[in-house]
Amino acid sequence: MLGVRSLRGGCRGREAVRIFSRMFQRLAPSGGRQLTVSSHMSSSAHPAPGVAEADVAEQSIESSSNYAHETRAVNSMARRQCPVWSHNEWDPLEEVIVGRVEGAMVPPFSTEVKANTYQYHWDFFEKNGGKAFPAKHLELAHEEVEEFVRILEAEGITVRRPEICDFSKEYVTPDFRSSGLYSAMPRDVLLVLGDEIIECPMAWRSRFFEFRAFRPLVREYFKQGARWTTPPKPLMNDELYEQNYPMDTVEDRHHLAAEGKFITTEYEPCFDAADFIRAGKDIFVQRSQVTNKFGIEWMRRHLGDRYRLHVLSFDDPNPMHIDATFNIIGPGLVLSNPDRPCHQIEHFKKAGWTIIKPPAPAMPDSHPLWMSSKWLSMNVLMLDPKRVVVDSNEVPTIKMFEKLGIECVKVSLRFANSLGGGFHCWTSDIRRRGILETYF
């Protein structure tokens, strides 16, 4: 029922229970039988004996109106009670986690890393795996990220940061040996749905302990009323990875992706938060090199009837994280990568969505992108429906937003891009002003 979903979607409190109880009593039939409520009540209402259909319709409309009003009251109250409250990618941003450059390490060049990087960077990983990224590059990236933080704070947004950790330490489990990566991309680690934070079971061995950098924040949010979910942690033994995965050419990868074959197997569930994109009650996800069907099914069962989970696929030889391929920037408004067309795009068109193909990125070929593509140009952060943080170097993208009537907050993130993410990746929005709604 919608009322149940709304209550579960926000932090619980005695007043919320009382409001919901009043809503249920008002909507329940006189005989006490439970009434299943939908957003379109009048089409399924049946009049009681001796009651005119017109009277039922009038009562149904009145009940529906009162229900919607009280539902919004529950959502609003829950948002005030809980610091974690975010349902989509565009409602007004109030609190956000921004990642850190400090301690960033080149990941050991294991099978799953090789499958997610391009061949022209393999020498770099073979020589530098387990070492720090180039010091000068990290210095410039650090300056960019700290300026980004200052700009967000100047906009009145609360900015939280993960712990500084030593990712150079090697760790050993019964199944593998590795050193760490970084705490730069909270969007990969934490999936926020309403008042719930999900610590995702990631697929890279170098990211096995990455959650530790964010754990103090998650613990704090939990103590303040947020829900905290940790899915099954994958063992990451050899059975999770296709050991004979052919990856020498882009053609190989295109062929395999078209067949639904990736470096990760279905041995155990794994997924990165960045393979999910939110639009209220509809959550979109892709099967990728780091998110398997097992992980998607785990999420589907976990979400139950609170959300609708939709699986998307793209012409992408190396899918990993959806937000530089399909980035929803407003209600019924999506940036769709023209180089990676969505196979299900007609469903969005039929639903009345506006599909925008962003312009080609302006980043030069000479700039190192060790773990990402130039299409980070579309990996933007919406501050609200009419303001967006976009890279100051991406002039064509800036002009696109201006034509859409969206004000651009321009920040350079070019050197930080080299570590694998744009503004959306470098952040995880903890609180946005708004309620759970349906857009699809």
Automatic annotation (TrEMBL):
Lineage top rank: taxon: Eukaryota
Catalysis: reaction(s): L-arginine + glycine = guanidinoacetate + L-ornithine
GO BP terms, alphabetized: creatine biosynthetic process
Keyword Transit peptide: yes
CDD domains in the cross-refs: amidinotransferase_AGAT-like
Catalytic site positions: 272, 321, 425 (amidino-cysteine intermediate)
Region of interest: Disordered: 35-58
Protein name: Glycine amidinotransferase
Keyword Transit peptide belongs to the record: yes
Main localization (coarse): mitochondrion
